Amino acid sequence: MTTADPQSTGFQRARSPEAKHARETAILEAARTLGARDGIRQVTLTDIAVETGMHKSAMLRYFETREEIFLRLTADGWREWTPVLCDRIAAGEPATASTVARAFASTLAARGAFCDLLAQAPLNLERNVSLDAVRRFKLTTRESLDRIVAAIRAALPGLTDQDGVDVVATATSLAGTFWQIATPSEEVATLYRSDPRMSHALIDVEPRLERILTALLRGQLAA
């Protein structure tokens, strides 16, 4: 990605559908790179414009707001994560509460940027976009939810559809929260490490998420 001044790039508006798609892809990739490096909350629309070499006003022809850009990335994250998770669930032989919980925990912990997006989506990404953008996002997550619930029930037939929905909601909300807790600023992390009384503030996302999900699934199976 270029970091040239967008005022001097000679930017030309995309004319064809292919050029428009390429421009949207460039914007999304710039936002993905900046979000992974700096954290979603720190990235502004101006940052993304500079990274792509575009005028900020020109970028608004493709996306309404920075929140829409990151909401699109969240939807992409669901589409990428879902088949990986479903394959991991199916690979657990014999399937148990522990193997299903481990599939969720390991695949989410490996996707820190996605966890960041999961935390930000309900807090702000869904709140500064059009209803059409929210609708598209929710339909994407619904497709993923249906597929994941089917995978969970195939592995653990004793669970209901609602049980599966509850597992997905718990896993994704906790993964987003735990990732935020586990990635404080370097100054805050140093503070935590310097005082044993603050050791509880240093968490490892994967094992904690696996323990909680295992307990949830065992409780559902016993109900």
In short:
The chain has 223 residues and is mostly helical. The chain has 10 helices and no strands.
Structure description:
The protein is mainly α and 223 residues long. It is built from ten helices and no strands. Helix 4 packs antiparallel against helix 5, helix 5 runs antiparallel to helix 10 and helix 6 packs across helix 8.
Percent of sequence in beta strands: under 5%
Oligomer: single chain
Care to count the β-strands?
0
The number of distinct helices, counting runs of at least 4 residues, comes to: 10
- Mean pLDDT comes to 91
Shape: globular
Low-confidence stretches: 1-11
Helix content: over 70%
- Which class best fits the helix and strand makeup? mainly alpha
Question: Which short descriptors sum up this protein?
Answer:
disordered N terminus; 72% helix; 223 residues; single chain; mainly alpha
What is the topological layout?
Elements (H helix, E strand, L loop, with lengths): L16 H22 L6 H8 L3 H4 L6 H25 L6 H13 L2 H14 L5 H25 L5 H22 L3 H9 L10 H18 L1
Helix pairs in contact: 1-2, 1-4, 4-5, 4-6, 4-7, 5-8, 5-10, 6-8, 7-8, 8-10
